[in-house]
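> call design_seq(struct)
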């Protein structure tokens, strides 16, 4: 070997330049394109020339020509056997961002599919964001959307990130933390989610190396020493395994496998172990011809070495969520060392190492066969569904962070179909995973034939059945326990849509009522004749559409009386005068304090009408309606102290409301029952309430030691005030009850 000191400085430059020229040439890529036709290679060469010209004069941080980066990305994609369009896009992936090339120019030169792939890869540099997290969310959203349409985009992106991480040491050290954190939090989980095991392992280790350089070096030395110490032991295991499989009636390929430094570090950190306590650093992979051979190989190994109890996993019968299949078993080898073995077939191995990229690998090896076309597509499609309903980048980001990590439980539908759900998912998540209509209309559920609450968390092997009702709608309380982004976004979308729809109806009713008070019987039609009239009114209110105006009125953001007065003025300009008879009738009704034209309440209202929690009105109570700012209509009892204070300072926001003759549901109110303490008192009181058909929704027994008498505070759902009187009468007759009354706030 030539001593370093004998190499003079001048020859270094031409050698370095020659190496750069070789890395920047198309020849560096050609050797990996033997699976493509000559015409496809010519198309890729055209893309290379265009990219080379576009990046001319640009250098990477290490001084190499910039084109070496697109070539390295294309080389990785070629290893996955991606098609010509993907390889062209990988060579061109930075020309729109860094060189100012337009999408139209790419379409003209290379066709729409290639241009779409490049556009999906281009960062959103020209847009302004309020925070770095929002920037990350928006960029990630675009990337995922493109991925959902075409998975090749994410494969190119991961190849791009892999090469950037391999050369991260050339980047200023202050950028290491951000880039490495982004890699380990975003790109490595995506690679894992799509089954790209090699890329996943490499990204994790490279990110770990730059995030925790000192720990990485220490651990690398420890693994190296351990490898030296155990070399003889591992060789002995391999020889024994090869010997026992030599007699097997099928062909076997045996390969050693070593845990990555990052996975060792994570296990030590999570389980608080020392390096010496991590026993599964080394393992072996057994690749066999058929699925049956996998189970046969398992039996052979279990006869050779003793299995560790509880360390067997069958991912062939139940594949992982990203398509991974293998049998895993941990055996006690020589010197009592635990060694993991994985049994799989060649196609399983292809999917395990390359994930969704196995589709192209399979097509390259089996041109006439079908492939794993739908691998990972269910997850990608669910992301697209979330994007369609979520316009807030931070909310979308929350969904993705939950759905990215594939720690799954496997449950069964009543028909035996296996469904993978995130750990912690509930029955409602399961219902929405089947279909959004099933989720929206779910009323009850059972696991293994036994009825369970909808918030029940699912466990491996549960057989889950849900029952639906066509009239049922999502409950806002579900948002407090659903786990998946899909379920959360569907519930929020439904509630937002319903709130707007109901607010429009309430706004129309309130505006019509205010117009009648001004002598106009009904709202003008939204037709060609009245178009100018509505446009003038919208300019006055500052709304864009009539629907938006009515929503604002229903939510209390606009006062119906003021909008109605302005509308009367505009109607007067076109010759529509108030009806004197109607005007006098309405004013007479108002002076007599009757409720003519009032908003009728029957309990069918959802988010547009709220019943005040301070006084909890019941049918039969005198009530008033307060149009809160942005809250919709809030109904109070007439004698409620809160309502009286609001009337004093905000009287123009109060409107007439009354109970409908027929109500569609019961209404909640609070009662206080003072009892003498004794055994079974609560059960006696609850029994009286049940017999009186009062539905108990909450009990508060207070805190502190029990005295001779205790106040029990119940929230109960009742039909009306007459029902309340009957309940209180029955309670007062009960033996342990000293007093029973309705709880109301102080005036």
């Amino acid at each position: 070997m030539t001593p370093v000191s004998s190499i003079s400085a001048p020859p270094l430059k031409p050698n370095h330049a020659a190496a750069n020229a070789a890395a920047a040439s198309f020849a560096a890529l050609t050797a990996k394109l033997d699976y493509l036709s000559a015409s496809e290679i010519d198309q890729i060469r055209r893309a290379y020339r265009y990219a080379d010209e576009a990046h001319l004069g640009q250098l990477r941080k290490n001084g190499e020509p910039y084109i070496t980066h697109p070539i390295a990305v294309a080389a990785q994609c070629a290893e996955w056997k991606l098609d010509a369009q993907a390889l062209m896009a990988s060579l061109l992936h930075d020309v729109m961002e860094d060189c100012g090339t337009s999408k139209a120019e790419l379409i003209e030169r290379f066709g729409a599919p290639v241009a779409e792939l490049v556009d999906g890869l281009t960062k959103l540099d020209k847009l302004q964001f309020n925070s770095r997290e929002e920037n990350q969310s928006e960029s990630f959203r675009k990337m995922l959307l493109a991925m959902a349409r075409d998975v090749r985009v994410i494969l190119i992106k991961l190849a791009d990130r892999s090469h950037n991480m391999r050369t991260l040491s050339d980047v200023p050290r202050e950028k290491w933390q951000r880039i490495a954190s982004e890699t380990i939090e975003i790109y490595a989980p995506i690679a894992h989610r799509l089954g790209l095991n090699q890329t996943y392992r490499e990204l994790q280790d490279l990110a770990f190396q730059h995030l925790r350089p000192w720990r990485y070096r220490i651990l690398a030395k420890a693994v190296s020493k351990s490898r030296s110490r155990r070399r003889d032991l591992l060789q002995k295991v391999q020889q024994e395994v090869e010997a026992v499989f030599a007699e097997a009636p099928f062909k076997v390929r045996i390969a050693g496998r070593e845990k990555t430094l990052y996975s060792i570090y994570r296990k030590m950190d999570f389980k608080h172990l020392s390096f010496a306590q991590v026993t599964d650093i080394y393992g072996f992979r057994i690749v066999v011809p058929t699925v049956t051979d996998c189970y046969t190989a398992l039996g052979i190994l279990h006869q050779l070495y003793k299995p560790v109890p509880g360390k067997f996993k069958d991912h062939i019968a139940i594949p992982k969520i990203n398509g991974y299949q293998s049998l895993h078993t941990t055996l006690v080898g020589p010197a009592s060392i635990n060694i993991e073995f994985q049994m799989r077939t060649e196609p399983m191995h292809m999917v395990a190492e390359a994930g969704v990229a196995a589709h192209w690998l399979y097509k390259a090896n089996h041109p006439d066969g079908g492939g794993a076309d739908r691998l990972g597509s269910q997850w990608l499609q669910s992301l697209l569904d979330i994007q369609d309903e979520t316009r807030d980048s931070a909310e979308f980001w929350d969904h993705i962070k939950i759905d990215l990590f594939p720690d799954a439980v496997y449950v069964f539908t009543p028909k035996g179909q296996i469904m993978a759900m995130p750990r912690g998912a509930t029955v409602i998540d399961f219902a929405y995973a089947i279909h959004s209509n099933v989720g929206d209309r779910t009323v009850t559920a059972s696991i293994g034939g036994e009825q369970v609450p909808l918030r029940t968390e699912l466990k491996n092997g549960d057989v889950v059945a849900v029952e639906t009702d066509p009239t049922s709608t999502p409950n806002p309380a579900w948002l407090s326990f659903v786990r998946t982004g899909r379920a959360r976004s569907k519930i929020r979308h439904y509630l937002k849509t319903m709130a707007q729809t109901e607010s429009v109806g309430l706004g129309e009713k309130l505006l019509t009522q205010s117009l009648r008070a001004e002598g106009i019987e009904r709202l003008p039609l939204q037709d060609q004749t009245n178009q100018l009239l509505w446009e003038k009114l919208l300019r006055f209110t500052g709304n864009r559409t009539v629907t938006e105006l009515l929503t604002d009125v229903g939510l209390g953001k606009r006062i119906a009386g003021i909008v109605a007065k302005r509308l009367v003025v505009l109607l007067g300009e076109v010759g529509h005068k108030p009806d004197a008879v109607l005007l006098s009738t309405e004013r007479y009704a108002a002076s007599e304090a009757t409720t003519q034209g009032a908003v009728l309440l029957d309990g069918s209202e959802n988010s547009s009408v709220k019943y005040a929690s301070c006084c909890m009105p019941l049918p039969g109570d005198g009530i008033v309606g307060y149009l809160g700012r942005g809250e919709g209509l809030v109904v109070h009892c007439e004698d409620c102290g809160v309502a009286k204070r609001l009337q004093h300072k905000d009287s123009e926001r109060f409107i007439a409301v009354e109970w409908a003759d027929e109500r569609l549901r019961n209404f909640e109110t609070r009662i206080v029952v003072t009892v003498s303490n004794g055994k079974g008192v609560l059960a006696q009181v609850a029994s009286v309430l049940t017999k009186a058909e009062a539905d108990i929704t909450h009990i508060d027994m207070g805190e502190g030691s029990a005295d001779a008498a205790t106040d029990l505070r119940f929230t109960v759902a009742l039909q009306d005030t007459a029902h309340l009187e009957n309940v209180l009468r029955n309670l007062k007759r009960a033996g342990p009850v000293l007093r029973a009354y309705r709880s109301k706030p102080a005036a």
